[in-house]
Amino acid sequence: MAHITIKDLSFSYPVDPDRLVLDHVSVDIEQGQYVTLCGKSGCGKTTLLNQLKTVLTPNGKRTGEVLLDGVSLDQIDLRTQAATIGYVMQDPDSQIVTDKVWHELAFGLENLGFDQRTMRTRVAEMASYFGIQSWFHKDVEELSGGQKQLLNLASIMAMQPNILILDEPTSQLDPIAASDFLNTVRKINLELGTTIIITEHRLEDIFHASDKVIVMEKGKVIVQDEPKAVGRYLKDENSEMFAALPAPVQIYYGVAKEAGFDMDDLKRVPLTVREGRTWLSELFEGKEVLPLKEKEDVPVKDVEEDPAISLKDVWFRYDRDLPDVLKGTTFDVGRGKIFALVGGNGTGKSTMLKAICRSIRPYRGKLLIDGKKLDSYKSGDLFKGKLAMLPQDPKSLFVKTTVREELEEMLGTKEAARYEKEVEIKGFENVPLDERIRQVAEECDILHLLKSHPFDLSGGEQQRTALAKVLLTEPKILLLDEPTKGIDNFFKLQFANILRKLQERGVTILMVSHDVEFCARYADQVGMFFDGDVITTNTPDKFFGQNSFYTTAANRMSRHLFTNAITDEDVIQRCLENIQSWK
Amino acid sequence: MREIYKDEFATYNPITNIIYFLGAIILGMFFIHPVFVGVSIIIGLIYLFILKKKRALRELLFMLLMFVVISVINPVFNLLGATVLFRLFNRPYTLESLIYGMTLGGMAVAILCWFACYNCIMTSDKFIYIFGKIIPSVSLILSMILRLIPNLTKKTKQIASARSCIGMAGDSSSSRMEKVRNGTLVLSTLTSWSLEGGIIMADSMRSRGYGSGKRTTFAKYRFDARNLVLILVMAFLLTVIIFCAAKGATQAEYIPYLMMSWFGDIYMSLGVLAYAVFLLIPVFLDIKEMIKWRILRSKI
Question: Which domain holds residue B192?
Fold first, then answer.
């Protein structure tokens, strides 16, 4: 008998009873397994996870059942469920209930009515296990995102659950904090034998470690098996989900046919960078590697002739007594380029963006927009048709009740009020959209969402709605702060296509991002931000080709053979060229 | 972030702390005898300097100013009193009234001083702990509110800055009407955002067993023997002080003649002594600790 049995489970929301959000799902999970649940946004992952804990199950029609050690979940009382099934949610901030770290750790234990002695031991134990001692007495507000999520995990583990459910726990974290977090989850699984069920966008860190991968599509489970078999299945089915798999798997299957691998031999499929490296080395053993075909080498200009944005020796600190955040930041962004700045947390990247859109004023240095001093712009001129920023959290831009009103707000107060009134009288469908809005909405692919409440949208949809709103100011220069945070690969692709279109129209884009893969693929120039300044800038292939740690998985896997191959496609192409030359 | 003060008394249980401060503040408000007020000010300042070191100087400046103002102003309005010092605007300015003003000013300074010390010692944690002892559910609510406030401030700033970066926050030229409108929009976003956060928080609470039955409260502070001893000592001193006060030790009349108990009176002397010892408790503890560490270190 399995530990958790989901038997023929179907679920639909009362709003739309005919649409099955979960469509006859059956899954067995054994004690101590590490299970990864993946699928596109909106495929029913979260809905399925919510069914595993009665208090989180939303209202709706449900058939089938969930069994825990053979007992139906409905028959297990809430207190036992609270203790045995831990649930970590996506947003690190909103889950935290109390103001102090120590109190948050104790919160679950308080609810379960433990006595002082037990609580003390458990809290102490968790603080030590998760390395929380040094910030045990701190206010929650002082913690970083990664620390907050770790605290959420620790406060749940204090209740000693048998099952740990994690719903996209790292989507709001930077890559380093994210892999720290996932390593901790792995450690819990290995050392305590806790059953883990996790959903994630970033499969690189967890795919290889999973005992079982479940892939969902439109509320159905399309495959559930061990990772290598799932990779094979997705390749055979030509599924969209294949693109979400880790780089080594994708490169392997990209080359497999040409190289004449036996597709049924799953043992050779590499899941990690290490395995991928070994596999490539074996493939190339005793063979000459073709040198890189020199592309027409565009010399990297340190000084742009007519830069859209130009910073020279910009210094800033938040308070007289605080240390400098920007320390002589100097760099230019060429007109019509997509310029990406990467770098660790707290190096001052976001502060730099704030300086460009005048949220903060540097105390020294020059900041030019279109060759004109930033300070000489009137705020009306600067933000109308010149410069705009898409904030990190798209929600901070939403003030209305529908996406349409959200966009109409940008036409000006009078115009927006007129539309609102007309819609109220004539009905939504009967008032034609403003031509500009229609264009932008089409470009951002949100025409079908106009009627929805902005808060009801998924992360990627919110992102595009916010972008549409920003684009209505018709900016020549667009600033993006962590644009790919919390959105899945498909939305990233869609987002990148929009950026490309904007670039064709001559818009300059400056983005700050942790997402190495995204920058490698879509940026024209990449800069490394460190300690308050831009250290190096280069084209993505050279930039990432020279880094050994801060680079893409594809590059790390192939750097011993190829120079400057940074995306999966690069590596596949170079492999194929070589294989052809051997024939 | 609020500072953690290195102080021995701060390491005691919040209950011990609150008894001491209640004693110091309430007694300080009732005793209008100049000697008692003087004792309260001097010890209060000593303790404040121990806690805040140099930074107490800034507060001292303000206190001094307040003391002078109250002292000098009182005789201007209060014309009674036998000893006329001089005449101001043809009105008598009397010695008794001046001394009375000084006592009042001193009292105000002493209370300020004690509240400043209270602020250093009684962190929100300790405050909530004490509340939890009285009404358990309130302590959780307080803790949640303290979590919410900085969160809302942060979000408000974030929304305002996001809107200004797309030119929707108005500029210096926008009318008052527009400013109000912008403010309401920020508020409306803040509301929907917080409501959404509230739902997640409620889920997180229930999923961790909130409302599933009897609840206990985790106590970060222990109540050990040293706390008990200190509370007994304080109780004894307070009894002595109150007894002496009942016997008239703290009586003082200013108008029209100065008339107050003085050191010749046994109750008065005993009362001042007990009062000083009571207020000096944290200072004693710090000195004791200092000596202890000197000795420990010399042994190493």
Answer: 134-207
